[in-house]
Amino acid sequence: MGNRLKGKIAIVVGAGTQPGETIGNGRATSILFAREGAKVMLVDKHLDYAEETKSMIDKEGGESFTFKADIVNEDDCRRIIEKCVEVYDRIDVLVNNVGIGEGDISLTKLSEETWDKIFNANLKGMFFTCKYVLPVMVKQGSGSIINISSVASVCAPVPFPTYKISKSGVNALTQQIAMLYARRGIRANAVMPGLLNTPIAIEGFVRATGSSRKDVIKFRNKLVPLKGGMGDAWDAAYAVLFLASDEAKFITGVILPVDGGQSSKIG
Fold it and tell me: Is the pLDDT of residue 238 over 90?
């Protein structure tokens, strides 16, 4: 166990992992936080996914508890914050790690229902959690918010326009919070994962394209400039850990790529 987050209270929204052969960003972040001394509130709309994460933390001697919530519901987001304050009396770190892209297609074929569903999960939900955590952090005079964006928000073209646009909104929301609340001692940053080998990415792509898992991994590996191909959830989680820690006390408003150089490909 480490001390980088010793004594800190953290909420990870999207702390579970969908079924697959690897681990997701939210679970990896939750485990790292607990290893580094944080007490972690594990939030997921699939409570069983969050419970699996808790069992992993328990085995390592960490402290956490689970909470079922759907961030597209404003009342659920309010209850997340209230519950954490009720249990721990403060909130030092909020990680928003929810994002979807299923059903996203070209703009001329996209339905209003799909547009709304993706925007609600990817952007409106983050607005809700930030809306209710900010007063708590203002009262404390400190806090760190880390929103999980995507390298798709700055790379073009991508075949998922709604996902791209909504994640661009996450970047803007993060920077807005950073500037509005800097004088209150609150930091806000975003992490932009690139192509990672996570269940939501790989299994989702397999379902969407009908390709084999092996072919999907091979295709995605070729798109990454850095030797070795795709990263994994731990790469994103270590970036989140750094931004949450006091090591990053002078960092706010940053949109950090964790992408093997993909966002540096220009032209």
Answer: yes
